[in-house]
Design a protein that fits this description.
Hypothetical protein af1432, about 180 residues, mainly alpha, 9 helices
Length: about 180
């Protein structure tokens, strides 16, 4: 893997863990989850990508259908790497499941581990709001609109709480920094 891509993947994994934990901490009365498990699952959710072909991951274009199927293998590679940590490996395996059952493995609703559902929110949000080789970053408000339009992919309760969380934490912080001239 090219060094820049490896660093960006690591940064993405760290951001997803920070966003996930921050979200759960703000909503601890509504979300009952073991934070350590969530943190490990989030910080390692894309570890399988380090075993994929760098040319595919570095593509500056939309991936072909075959390449998309290949990239999907990162969840199985991550599961295999962490098989000694059964619960964590399952969280990693299912972090691309959609709440309506249209994800990688067809799990739906509460059959998806709660940690995977939470990581899915943070993962999508971070992917939308950061530049990738094949796309520009979206603003926070546009990213949240995209997520609302794709609401079938997320637990509706968690999505609603997540949007409130992002608006209260990140949007408020952004405007406070603007006032300070940062």
């Amino acid at each position: 893997m090219r060094r820049e891509v490896a660093i960006e993947t690591l940064m993405h994994m760290l951001r997803v863990s920070f966003i996930s934990i921050s979200f759960v901490n703000e909503n601890k009365n509504e979300i009952n989850v073991i934070r350590f498990r969530l943190f490990l699952g989030a910080v390692l959710h894309d570890i399988g990508k380090f075993k994929l072909n760098k040319k595919v991951l570095n593509a500056k274009r939309k991936l072909t259908k075959e390449e998309m199927i290949y990239v999907r293998e990162h969840v199985l590679l991550g599961e295999e790497l962490l098989k000694c940590l059964k619960k964590i490996s399952q969280i990693i395996k299912y972090h691309h499941e959609n709440f309506d059952g249209s994800g990688y493995y067809g799990l739906k609703d509460n059959a998806i581990p709660i940690e995977s559902q939470l990581i899915r929110l943070a993962d999508v949000y971070d992917s939308l709001t950061h530049k990738r080789p094949y796309k520009d970053a979206l603003s926070i408000s546009v990213a949240l609109e995209v997520m609302k339009k794709e609401e079938k992919n997320f637990n509706p309760i968690y999505l609603s709480l997540f949007i409130k969380h992002v608006k209260s934490k990140y949007v408020k912080s952004y405007f406070n920094n603007l006032k300070k001239g940062k």
